[in-house]
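Observation: inputs received (chain + iron/sulfur cluster).
Thought: call the complex predictor directly.
Action: predict_structure
Action Input:
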Amino acid sequence: MSQFAIIQPATTERNLGGVCYMPYWHYAMFRQKMEPVRLYENVTMRDWDRLLELHKKDRLLVDLSSYPQIDFVWSVLPDLVRAKTEFAFIGYEPLIRALGLPFFKVKNEELLTGVFGYLQYFEEYRYGLLSDCDSHLKHLEDGRAVVPLFLSVGCKRGCPYCYVSGSNYPYGTASDRQIDALLNLCVKQNWNIHFTDENFFAHPRYRQIVERLRGTGLRWICLTDTLSLYRVLGEHGAEWLRGGGNALNEVGLEVLDSTVLGKQQAIAPLLERRHEVPIFWLTMTFLPRDTLGSMRAMGDFLRRYGYRLEELLPRIQTNSTVGGLGQFMQLYHGTVYWQQREKLGRVFTERPTRLWPSFIGHRLLSSRVRVCETLQKEDEEWLGLYVGKARVEETLQEVDGRKTFGEIVGEDMAKAVALAQAARLNLIEEVGG
Ligand code: SF4
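Observation:
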């Protein structure tokens, strides 16, 4: 009997976004419909021949949700065509369509059954735990598993770099019945929870959810936006939020875009309260509007409010920048910035991830650079970990106020990172466009 076989190619990307849950959401959707399905996680080329041989009669669904998976896809495509196997792709629809690959389209309502059914099959997944955020809870070592839990999915705020707002991304909220069942399951299984909703405190039932976990001993983390956290703290107070103990392990705040300075002012009073509420936040740089000035401002902010190196060690593999958790803007097919990419700057790779710069805006490329200071002792440790002290020093030697950032960097993204880090450390400044 033919069945669906979901193949999730391994990826080198460490900082996995929500879209990378697609193979699991599809698996759970088929399981809910009682359709036969198998899931092959983290598949490499070594597994490929065997899988293809095993499943000639199956309908293969190959995941493409992370850009580094493209190479696997190009390698296996001739085999799929040659074997006349029935196949299609699931994952990030705009990318799949742009590559001219067949896309397995599922209605939003159907996919939602998988999003909110994902956890029921948790013990059938070999890996399952996708988010880098989960390692923040894993290091607690209280013996409990950490599970990602979506009680809502999608977002319609339309940030120009974000794929989540696209019409092709699932959007919806779990029903009251589903929420109760999922929370009961977590309590029964004694699982710590990573709420993977894009904005947990915008969820219409966040109060009941927090209350439900009170007294269970479970720890949880969530993501939210700055305004929602202000609102919740104003309405309930920090003690309520912490669940009368350490139940709330962390609140992750929305990305702090280095080019929106007002955001830093807005978030600062919350960061002053980190002794009351455990907060972490991400920064994002290399946006189209970024300049050396905006990176220096971010550096100043991180010096004041940023984390110490020791605080960041558990998550250092997935987010890394001096003084804070950093990501580099990545262009996703189908987003506003993707459509405007030629006007906005230069794309440096077809395999972007958020942990390495893949795009530099024209504004940054055309700014001229001047050295201001020398490297301070306390910065050396950071640079040694992330960029390489020698690389920063070497790049600084090339700085010449008559040259633009683009001329110094040339085609070398490593130099661009070194220069951007130097700006954050106030080692260099911008002298004009
Ligand atoms: S970045 Fe966050 S707020 Fe903006 S569209 Fe994406 S999920 Fe929504």
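Thought: report the result.
Final Answer: The mean pLDDT is 87. The longest strand covers residues 248-257.
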